[in-house]
């Protein structure tokens, strides 16, 4: 029994070494490409990565490849930081993002990823969140400064503020965000053609980006939830006009998300649901203090509900990712569905 552990360790070491060698065979000419290939293995070969432990092995392999390459440029640091972030190694992720920003301080994605990491670290110490939340908020604001039309990073900042109990910080951020005209989601620096199979490559790219996009959309929805809660408080305090104003902001937020760039059915679904909730809140509220508004609000609610039904029907007809042989084809399909739904609003 005493000799079994060393043997087991050698087997694990040899297995990981063979995985690294096999990945390098696909991307030896480009360590960054090899790293992303290793990272995306669970999407390319899901049967081989059925569990979270197996997916952790893929992330470890991706990290090992980039560490061995010792890339000094911002993209290499950013990619390594993202691999660490996805592997729950937040302090190491933060270190890489900070190093990348020293090389490219103008990249909004880098500011966004660092702020995202700091937001996670802040949440690990709830008793300090009220003050510590200012660091990730400032990071999201730096991303926003580099894209003057993009509301998304400011809504992320407001979400962190709501979670930290800082409504005083959240509300001005929401107001500032809603003055902007776009909701732009960032894209990671992952190659679109990792393998010779175009359909597989496109599906892997979409799988990786969707995780990042989903978090941004979810955090925006959380911001809207915080806003609705504040509106409910004002309603209980009989500040009906103040509550109605906040519900209107939730509806505006939903409209922004619905028109995300890139166009996504997932973003549209969240945006429509936020609009539905806000309109129902406003109908209940205005029935009490401004009945003349109610018919128009009901008409808008009926349109949103019809759009939700149409989206569900069109999503059922979407092709699976492997059937689309390129990322542009996947983007085009998503955009056509979103545009068809929005045309009825």
Describe the model:
With 345 residues, the chain is an all-alpha fold. It has three domains: 30-101, no CATH class; 106-182, Alpha Horseshoe (Serine Threonine Protein Phosphatase 5, Tetratricopeptide repeat), CATH 1.25.40.10; 189-345. Helix content is 75%, strand content 0%. The chain is built from 16 helices and no strands. α6 (90-103) runs antiparallel to α7 (108-123). The radius of gyration is 23 Å and the shape is globular.
Strand/helix succession: HHHHHHHHHHHHHHHH
Helix/strand structural class:
mainly alpha
Helix content: over 70%
User: How many domain units?
Assistant: 3
Instruction: Indicate the proportion of strand residues.
Output: under 5%
The residue ranges in which pLDDT falls below 50 over 5 or more consecutive positions are 1-6, 11-28
Task: Please count the helical segments.
Answer: 16
The chain-level mean pLDDT equals 91
Keywords:
single chain; 345 residues; mainly alpha; Serine Threonine Protein Phosphatase 5, Tetratricopeptide repeat; 3 domains; 16 helices; globular
Write the layout of secondary structure elements.
Layout: H1 4-27, H2 31-39, H3 41-44, H4 52-69, H5 74-86, H6 90-103, H7 108-123, H8 129-132, H9 134-145, H10 152-163, H11 167-177, H12 198-236, H13 240-258, H14 265-289, H15 294-315, H16 327-342
Helix pairs in contact: 1-2, 1-4, 2-4, 2-5, 4-5, 5-6, 6-7, 7-9, 9-10, 10-11, 10-12, 11-12, 12-13, 12-14, 13-14, 14-15, 15-16
Concise account of the structure shown:
75% of the residues lie in helices and 0% in strands.
């Amino acid at each position: 029994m005493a000799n079994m552990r060393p043997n087991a360790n050698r087997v694990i070491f040899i297995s990981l070494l063979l995985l690294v060698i096999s990945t390098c065979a696909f991307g030896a000419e480009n360590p960054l490409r090899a790293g992303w290939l290793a990272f995306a293995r669970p999407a390319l070969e899901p049967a081989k990565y059925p569990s979270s432990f197996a997916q952790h092995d893929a992330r470890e392999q991706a990290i090992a490849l980039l560490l061995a390459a010792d890339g000094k440029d911002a993209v290499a640091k950013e990619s390594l930081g993202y691999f660490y972030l996805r592997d729950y190694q937040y302090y190491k992720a933060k270190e890489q993002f900070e190093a990348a920003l020293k090389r490219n301080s103008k990249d909004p994605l880098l500011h966004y990823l660092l702020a995202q990491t700091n937001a996670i670290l802040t949440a690990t110490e709830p008793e300090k969140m009220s003050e510590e939340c200012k660091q990730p908020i400032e990071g999201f604001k730096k991303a926003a400064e580099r894209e003057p039309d993009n509301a998304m990073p400011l809504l992320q900042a407001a979400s962190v503020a709501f979670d930290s109990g800082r409504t005083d910080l959240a509300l001005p951020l929401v107001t500032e965000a809603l003055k902007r005209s776009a909701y732009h989601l960032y894209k990671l620096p992952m190659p679109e053609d990792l393998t010779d199979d175009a359909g597989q490559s496109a599906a892997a790219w979409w799988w990786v980006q969707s995780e990042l996009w989903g978090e941004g959309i979810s955090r925006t929805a959380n911001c809207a939830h915080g806003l609705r809660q504040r509106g409910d408080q004002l309603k209980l305090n009989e500040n009906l006009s103040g509550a109605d104003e906040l519900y209107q902001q939730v509806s505006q937020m939903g409209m922004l998300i619905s028109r995300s760039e890139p166009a996504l059915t997932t973003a549209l679904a969240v945006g429509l649901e936020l609009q539905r909730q806000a309109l129902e809140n406003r109908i209940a509220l205005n029935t009490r203090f401004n009945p003349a508004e109610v018919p128009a609000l009901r008409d808008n609610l009926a349109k949103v509900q019809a759009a939700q039904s149409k989206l569900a029907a069109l999503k059922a007809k979407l092709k699976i990712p492997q059937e689309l042989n390129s990322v542009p084809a996947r983007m085009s399909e998503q955009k056509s569905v979103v545009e068809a739904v929005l045309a009825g609003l």
